[in-house]
């Protein structure tokens, strides 16, 4: 059914109004796609909007820095806010509407409801950012009510988040499809992220070990290996095996449960930091070894970049 002539997207801040627009479009037989974001958009977000525009008649992009998913020592105050540039970017990719509410709109006085998705949110990022995925689930559930689209698009980079959202949608019978789209990477393989701007030049160089490790582990996996411990040009990487949908560890014969990550523990020690200082690295998550592998489990910590 498609065309609406290309035009700058309409920015709406009122949830009642954006819901009316989406409902009217769907009643007219138009397929509506939705791309939830926190703004500070890059080529990864642009690819989601392009995918939505290719598959839908109308596209809504939300831009909302959700305070509920930030911990007390994280980067809520300094998270980049670039609304004008974001609106221009998504308009050029086919978005018809941008929904940009205020925090007081999403969470008015007296707000008392949270959504908790238990098992998929328990480990990894959920273990070191208490309440983070409850904040994510709460705001996404609210957005799905306010923007009742046919389909929502998320990036595969935020893998655990996609598992949490899909579980919530299934458990609460929310009538929306969830599409997970491929990760978009920098030329050297690092996944694009709004928080990459926080990286120092040395951290940026070492972060490439994430992609190198994924590639190396994938090759080992195809060769039949259950566990990969691989040296890359920028660091050691390890592989934890977790089922896609549950994120519960697979029990292996030696008691190990591996996931892929990049160790920056040596740098952490060099700076004489402790585990209590991890909040300074709010763009990172970490967890200790859960293994019987002879790799100094008390000393190593594994870090992975998060959105």
Quick take:
This protein is 33% helix and 16% strand. The chain is α/β, with parallel strands linked by helices.
Instruction: Describe the main β-sheet briefly.
Output: 6 strands, parallel
Number of domains: 2
Number of strands: 11
Question: What is the general shape?
Answer: globular
Q: What is the CATH C level class of the largest domain, in words? A: Alpha Beta
CATH architecture of the largest domain: 3-Layer(aba) Sandwich
Structural class by sheet pairing and helices: alpha/beta
Q: Poorly predicted ranges (pLDDT <50, ≥5 residues)?
A: 227-232, 234-244, 249-307
Strand content: 15-25%
Order of helices and strands: EHEHEHEHHHEHEHHEEEHEE
End-to-end distance: 35 Å
- Average pLDDT rating: 78
CATH topology annotation of the largest domain: Rossmann fold
Strand order in the largest sheet: 1-4-3-2-5-6
Q: How many helices does DSSP assign?
A: 10
The value of Rg in angstroms is 20 Å
- Percent of residues in helices comes to 25-40%
Question: Can you put this structure into words, describing what you see?
Answer:
By secondary structure, the chain is α/β, with parallel strands linked by helices. It folds into two domains: 10-181, HUPs (Rossmann fold, 3-Layer(aba) Sandwich), CATH 3.40.50.620; 194-305, no CATH class. Helix content is 33%, strand content 16%. It is built from ten helices and eleven strands. The chain has helices at residues 15-27, 43-55, 83-93, 103-106, 125-128, 132-146, 159-171, 201-207, 209-222, 265-270, and strands spanning 10-12, 32-37, 58-63, 97-99, 151-155, 177-181, 229-232, 235-238, 261-263, 284-288, 301-305. The strands form two sheets. The chain has a six-stranded parallel β-sheet with strand order 1-4-3-2-5-6, sandwiched between helices. Helix 6 packs across helix 7. The longest helix has 15 residues, at 132-146. The protein is globular, with a radius of gyration of 20 Å. It starts with 9 loop residues before the first strand and ends with a strand. The model is unreliable at 227-232, 234-244 and 249-307 (pLDDT under 50).
